Amino acid sequence: MSQKTVTITDNATGKSVDFPIREATHGPAVIDIKNLYKEMGYFTYDPGFTSTASCRSDITYIGGDQGELWYRGYPIDQLAEQSSFLEVAYLLLHGELPNKRELDTFNRAITHHTMVNESLKNFFNGFHYNAHPMAMLTGVVGSLSAFYHDTVDVNDPHNRMLCAYRIFAKMPTISAAAFKHMLGEPFVYPQNRLSYCGNLLNMLFSRPSEEFEINPVAERALDQLLILHADHEQNASTSTIRLTGSTGTNPFAAVAAGCAALWGPAHGGANEAVLNMLEEIGDVKQVPRYIDKAKDKDDPFRLMGFGHRVYKHYDPRASIIRKTCHEVLDELGIYNDPQLELAMRLEEIALADDYFVERKLYPNVDFYSGIIYRALGIPTEFFTVMFAIGRAPGWLAQWMELVTDPEQRIGRPRQLYAGPSKRDYVPLHRRSG
């Protein structure tokens, strides 16, 4: 810990207290205020925790002002262009990139755990055919704890990693089963000969009645998308998993809670919101009118998929996936989809219009991921499930870091109470009205 301190003075009493500063490897330092209430009788007020560091982490660094994103110190562009999702998952879970032997062992272990218990499939029969796939994913992931309760010991390193492998391996299988349930088609079993993303595509789109050939461009695009979504520091779903995990609950329940948080349109549903926006615009001829609406601060319309709350410059993930997006569209020959035509027109305007350039409202990763998923034939309501598959290794790495951190305690945020003062109970017959 740094020897630097910050002095906080209560102007009402004149009392001053020094609080230590904890330096970060990169990014802003933090003021350690855990003794603030003890010393001064105050809590801090920070809605949304936007100025509060809730934990210490070695996993992901975001430099919002510089447009940087690192996993374990590795820049996202290097990983997305040179690595594989499986290799990145190993990096997040184990802290270092694997050598050839370690990656092969990891691949075999994940492949070994892709199957789900046959009785787990019965859970899907309890969902209506048009249930939202995130409802199915959240429920079924949580139910895994009923199948592996005898091997869930959060204090045992081997059991922790075994749980992490199981969740990571089974996310595509469960997700694809939810997809097939939506379509009323038979579930497809995982194939050990296929890659992680090849397996996912096969379980999503193959049918017993015909051969399915995996397009290598689509497979690589999906692999890259999952890399870009693998972790993103202390976002809402990750913080949910950490808060849930701080109670000592099993990782299946914690990840299910993360899925529920990811479901929100302000979080994992952002790429789904992009497609909904394109549907609202309707026609490429309407783009100028909607651009004007977006510029009008009094108009409620907002361009979804442009700009980012964290990145004050260009979203580094967007610059990577933009190229892949165009490669996918060219490879699949999709030129007559009105929504994709709309998206490309919006992209063209946003990259050239002074209004968007000056405000750094560039297309973000959600914009391009929505386009790619649509081009691959994935329905809009399934986008968030794809996001969850990608985010799984980051969630699990964050959970394991949480349960091994000696400084972490059960999460217990405080509040600024603004309700009534103490009052006495009034019997029902004496209440007016």
Automatic annotation (TrEMBL):
Keywords: Transferase, Tricarboxylic acid cycle. GO terms for cellular component: cytoplasm. It catalyses: oxaloacetate + acetyl-CoA + H2O = citrate + CoA + H(+). Pathway: Carbohydrate metabolism; tricarboxylic acid cycle; isocitrate from oxaloacetate: step 1/2. The keyword Transferase applies. The keyword Coiled coil does not apply. Pfam families: Citrate_synt. The active site is at H308, D366. GO terms for molecular function: citrate synthase activity. One of its GO terms (biological process) is tricarboxylic acid cycle. PANTHER family: CITRATE SYNTHASE. Belongs to the citrate synthase family. This is Citrate synthase.
